[in-house]
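Hi all, posting the design record for the shared folder.

TITLE: backbone redesign
STEP: 1 of 1
STRUCTURE INPUT:
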């Protein structure tokens, strides 16, 4: 389960971090629903409370996978969509991704990702060869719930972490304990 949480967290961070020119999302509570092709992994639903500062931090070069990890970060707009092609290395793992982002960052948007991983440890649920297709549908739900702080992420199983208190490969903010692992 820890590996799945770390993988999902890495996917959530890698997408906006590489997409350096994405518009800011509306502050509040967002629901992110990630579906994987061919049932490679179960659907993941995450509720994320953001404010302008947290969203900016997650989208900044210094906040995610930056120049040091990604030898390629091409972002371009094509007919109302944002196309992102990247090649990033995290430790022994190299990931090539092609993403198409469409929608409205005030109410709902979709990210479709084709990626291929080479090297590094195998990820539970990933098909052999490391190729994966994922769709992330994001929907704004309204104000953050009582007791939530900006950066809080709540998984479907109730597991809660805060992105401002984590340390991800490549310098995610917060100086937390280790790659993708929440503070205890």
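Okay, here is what came back for every position:
SEQUENCE:
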């Amino acid at each position: 389960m820890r590996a799945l949480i770390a993988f999902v967290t890495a996917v959530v961070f890698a997408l906006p971090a590489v997409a350096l020119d994405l518009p800011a999302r509306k502050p509040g509570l967002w629901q992110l629903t990630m579906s994987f092709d061919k049932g490679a992994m179960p659907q993941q639903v995450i509720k994320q409370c953001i404010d302008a500062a947290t969203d900016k931090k997650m989208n900044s070069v210094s906040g995610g996978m930056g120049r040091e990890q990604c030898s390629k970060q091409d972002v371009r707009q094509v007919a109302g969509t944002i196309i992102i092609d990247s090649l990033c290395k995290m430790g022994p793992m190299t990931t090539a991704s092609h993403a198409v982002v469409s929608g409205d960052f005030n109410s709902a948007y979709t990210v479709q990702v084709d990626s291929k991983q080479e090297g590094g440890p195998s990820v539970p649920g990933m098909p052999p060869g490391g190729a994966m297709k994922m769709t992330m549908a994001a929907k704004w739900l309204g104000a953050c719930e009582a007791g939530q702080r900006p950066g809080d992420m709540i998984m479907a199983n109730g597991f809660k972490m805060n992105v401002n208190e984590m340390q991800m490969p490549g310098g995610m903010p917060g100086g937390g304990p280790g790659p993708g692992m929440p503070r205890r």
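COMMENT: Residues 2-165 form one domain.
Let me know if anyone wants the other runs.
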